[in-house]
Amino acid sequence: MQLELRGITKRFPGVIANDNVNLTLKTGEVLCLIGENGAGKSTLMNVLYGMYKAEEGQILLDGSPVVFTSPADAIAAGIGMVHQHFMLVPVFTVAENVVLGVEPTGRFGSLDIDKAREMVREVSDRYNLNLDPDAIIEELPVGVQQRVEIVKVLLRDAKVVVFDEPTAVLTPKEIIEFFEIVKTLIAAGRGVVFITHKLKEALNVADRIAVLRRGQVVGEVDPKSATESQIAEMMVGRPVQLIVDKKPHAPGEVVLEVKDLSIVDADGRTMVDHVSFTVRAGEVVGIAGVQGNGQTELVDALTGLRHSTRGRVELDGQDITSASPRERHSKGIAHVPEDRQRQGLVGGLSVAENLVLTRYHDEEFSNGIVMDWPAAHRVAESLITEYDIRTPSADIEASTLSGGNQQKVIVARELSRPLRLSIAAQPTRGVDVGSIEYIHSRIIKERDTGTAVLIVSTELDEVMALSDRLLVMYRGKIVADLDPKATSAMDVGLYMAGSRPASAVNA
Amino acid sequence: MKIVASLRKIAERIARTSSFRITLLAVLSAMVVGAFIIILSDIDKLQNGDIIGAIRTVGSAYWALVVGSFGSLRAISATINSATPLILCGLSVAVAFKAGLFNIGATGQMLAGGMAALWVGFAMDGPGYVQVPLAVLAGALGGAAYGAIPGILKARTGAHEVITTIMLNNMAGFMVLWLLKTNLYQRADRTDPISKLVTAPGHLPRLFGFLDNRPDLIAHAGFVVAILAVIVYWWFLNRSTTGFEFRAFGMNADAAQYAGMHTKRLTVMAMMFAGAFAGLAGSAEVLGTYGYASQNFAGNIGFDAIAIALLGRSSPVGTLFAALLFGALQAGGRQMQANTDVPIDLIVVLRALIVMFIAAPLLIKAIWRVKVAPSSTGQTFRGWGS
């Protein structure tokens, strides 16, 4: 089967999301669609999947034009889509989820769950997916949930499977497993479209890479001969610094000291288990770990959003264990939260309002009763310029900005004041290459002015590149304290998975 | 020239705001459906095949609505009188909406505020310029105190405000009944639950009191209070620090907490503000419209207010106009019932239809073939258990 997108143009009020895009997808190969956030990748795939109707252009299936008015049409034509956010019913079993919408029925229309189990088992075996049809979705790791989505698509007989940012939610190990699955799909004669903004992954799995920028295909490259910086340049439209450029660090006095901190959550599970560490002035300490090993709870406790069960947190020798978020803020702690949509921003407020979200009560902006909005606007305008936040104006809703620009709003707000300690969780999650470069350079700049910096990230490359000292968290404990320059990514990955590298065992 | 240009700018902005267009189209849609209901209700004409006559009934009914609400000074006065408590209770629901809370308790807060205002109203005897502001203030405080209860319950225990405010409405109703039987409140010569009369200087002055021999113009200074409340609400939301906290908290409670806002305090404050507005509505009714209190002086206003806040998208101006629309329908409805055979119940149907069309922007989009923004229902409340 061959699918061709010819001259696709899709406009939204004020923007052209896709501008005369030509693209060919074939079975038996992996096409990687790479581009920054907002480049139009998802829009293009939604046009293909019948969710949007393009203003211009046509879709050709094996040479003859087709019109998809709904996802049902696309599915019937053999196109399957695995969305970034899974469409699964958490309390249902794997088999129940897979057959949802195409349920095999027995006599009198009752659900034939045995048949459903059989269907899951068959597909799972054929593609090496290793799925238990009776497992409950919410009890499964994200990587397994994704495989359930894949089975759903395969059972609907998809010839071409579109994956929208499939690795964003996966652990390093799951990513490797995912790539194996992709290879099996190709070997079985299906086609894969892989949407990503991660260069390494694209080079790793793709047979062809199409680069999108501002709604246009700016070129196709051959992964065998292309380099990361070459593709990054095509994506951003200018040369990009991919390696974090930093001077050797000069650690000063201890700023943050965490002593024997433990956190037990509402369900009685120990999320943080007797954790102790320090962060010095002018030093970046990274905490690596697979999502869900206590990093979120640790950061919440350090920023005052959650009570610790035991232990102490000290800032410059002062006990701040039970200080409120506001008190910590006024003591010079900045917090870039891990989930910008949920915590970091109020999407319905304007960019300017978000730029003062944690500082609105400062004398600069408020006398305690009345806001000084003109002052807030002046600060907002200068931050927008200084941090290169791409927004039509300071007054539009923050939710309309791209992910990278939203993150810049948060970083600008949190780093643009005198700080003692800066805590950044997942500072570049879902952020495009150009913005990552910028955010990293700001964090290093902050370190160089003598701020203590704590970075928590599940992106191994990121923590390795930024940190002067690297801690690894596993099941609530800090299992390693490493020098990132003297450690390989492979070894850190092993610590993250709860084992120890052979070199460490021997030592 | 400058004024014309800026006026045009405002008009353009309103036209571009799809929410405004939706509201207009929703009202129009409701009128169209209402017309069919009027025709169907006039079954005799329909059976005789008198289509022209049926259409004429629709015309005269809607014409009576217009005349009865804006056609004369008397009509305007009636509209203002009906709209006054609706504006204030609408603000009550709106301010809670803005903070992400769903205040079903405007009725109870109105009763509490009204009883507080009433006490000042009959216990004092002038001078008016002291007694009236004092009574109005007592109303606001009474409502605020009653609104604080669900706020504190929510902040302390997480009890959902929808449940608690509904319960508190019932409790307020029975408390009023009890109070009206006590020596403090009950009118001396009566055995039924009816309160003492507000003393003459304690009445809210009539708006058109300067016109001679027009006792039929019942609108009172409660309307001025309502307009001032709209201005205060606007200022509070857009200029005050706490108003900013309300908006941030209402749109994203997690982010508000992250930003160091005291979310529990905000919950209590939002419900107190809501109660204060509803309490003002209670005092306006007691001190202006009735001059005393009977058991049910809050009527259905607290519930209509929910529709008004929804219709006005909780914005100050939106709520004001939504309340004026509902008030006009109320006033015009009486005229319509008098002039034609169409029952006043049609007004209830029309209001329900307007709200239904507002809540279903996609329906409006399909009917009128216009483009609308997907999220046009404005500020809503958070789900259960949050």
Give a quick summary of the entry.
The complex is a heterodimer of chains A (507) and B (386). Chain A is α/β, with parallel strands linked by helices and 507 residues long.
Give keywords:
heterodimer, A: about 500 residues, alpha/beta, Rossmann fold, six-stranded mixed sheet, 20 strands, about 35% helix, globular, B: mainly alpha, disordered C terminus
Would you kindly provide a written description of the structure presented here, covering whatever features stand out?
- Chain A is α/β, with parallel strands linked by helices and 507 residues long.
- Chain A has two domains: 2-236, P-loop containing nucleotide triphosphate hydrolases (Rossmann fold); 254-343 and 418-506, P-loop containing nucleotide triphosphate hydrolases (Rossmann fold, 3-Layer(aba) Sandwich).
- In chain A, 33% of the residues lie in helices and 25% in strands.
- Chain A is built from 18 helices and 20 strands.
- Chain A has helices at residues 41-48, 71-76, 94-99, 113-126, 142-155, 172-187, 199-205, 228-236, 295-303, 325-330, 340-344, 351-355, 373-386, 403-415, 433-448, 460-466, 489-496, 502-506; strands spanning 2-12, 15-26, 30-35, 56-61, 64-66, 79-82, 160-164, 191-196, 208-213, 216-221, 254-264, 270-280, 284-288, 310-315, 318-319, 333-336, 421-425, 452-457, 469-474, 477-482.
- Chain A has a six-stranded mixed beta sheet with strand order 6-7-8-3-9-10, sandwiched between helices. A six-stranded mixed beta sheet of chain A has the order 16-17-18-13-19-20, with helices on both faces. Chain A has a four-stranded antiparallel beta sheet with strand order 2-1-4-5, with helices on one face.
- The termini of chain A are far apart.
- Chain B is mainly alpha-helical and 386 residues long.
- Chain B has a domain at 80-341.
- Chain B is 72% helix and 0% strand.
- Chain B contains 16 helices and no strands.
- In chain B, α2 (18-41) crosses α16.
